Amino acid sequence: MRLANRLFRRIVEIRGGNTDVKAVANKANFKLFGNTISRRDVKKVLGIEHFDEIVRDDLLLVNSLNRAMLPSELAGRSNFVRQSRHVLEKLLSQA
Question: Are the CB atoms for 83 and 71 separated by under 8 Å?
Answer without folding.
Answer: no
